[in-house]
What does this fold into?
Amino acid sequence: MRARLRSFGAFWYDFVIGDDWRGGAAVAVALGVTAVLAHSQRINAWWLLPACVIAALGWSLRRAAARKP
Amino acid sequence: MNALPLFLTVLVACVVEAVEALTIVLAAGLTREWRSTFQGMAAALVVLAAVTAGVGPALTLIPLGALRLVVGALLAAFGLQWLRKAILRFSGYKDLHDEARAYEREVAAARAATASRRAAVRDWYAFTLSFKGVLLEGLEVVFIVITFGDTQRDLGVAVLAAAVAVALVTVTGVAVRAPLARVPENTMKFAVGIMLTSFGTFWGAEGAGTRWPGGDAALLVLVPVIGVVSAGYAVAMRRSRQPADAASLASAPPSAVPPSAAAPPPGRAAR
It folds into this structure.
């Protein structure tokens, strides 16, 4: 049962996150900061998530390129 | 938002997935046995229909803000994955997805496997190959249909786009009886990656409580911006890859240099 649950979780992790978890982590952190700014500081930080997504993509690509000989 | 971008995004994404599923089904059917292949395909379609029927309407009960936050986060992460792969393929850091080669691999594996009968299934290998292929590719279709359809509160248009995509690929596959290697899959994946990331970013930020300048019209800026930046990354990586390739060829011993790289192919030597 435990092994099945683990493989179920691994499947969904691979399905959504894939080879590099940093992209997913960057999206989660950016969304969290955006929500905090919007709700507690009343700052409309619509630009934060796109900027983080673009930066995370570049970072992930750079790492992939550095790993390839 | 207009239904047309929703329809086109889901259509292109689903065509890509359907082409990959078709390759697996053809490999199972043409190499092993059609009846078991169709049984596997039908079983997978039943599971996918059950997931869509269960999860799709259930998600509409979630408040739109929370739904957009969760769906936006998932879509942005999912889209980044597609985009990353597409850029690595374009720039030569990853092999291009080739349906003809994928088909050959599946056919070789299918030929090597032994046949075994289970209950009403004559060839268990053909059944499981077809079931897994359709289920895994279909899950991506269901994910895209449900996230786009529910977030736009227009599940009908998303389902229609997926149905048109699957029908289009099935009819073409039956007509040519070969993997659809001519479909520009890598380019389509690049485009879908841009759309998934853009919509995920848009909905995610809205769900987090921001208001986009211009409302839905902000997508008309966001999609091109993510597209242009991604294309820029791809071109820059391709340029940096070419000198690296040339340097590794120059430093390799003559026996390690593939003939295609060491000498121009016949007919091109004079050019």
Observations:
- The longest helix of chain B spans residues 219-251.
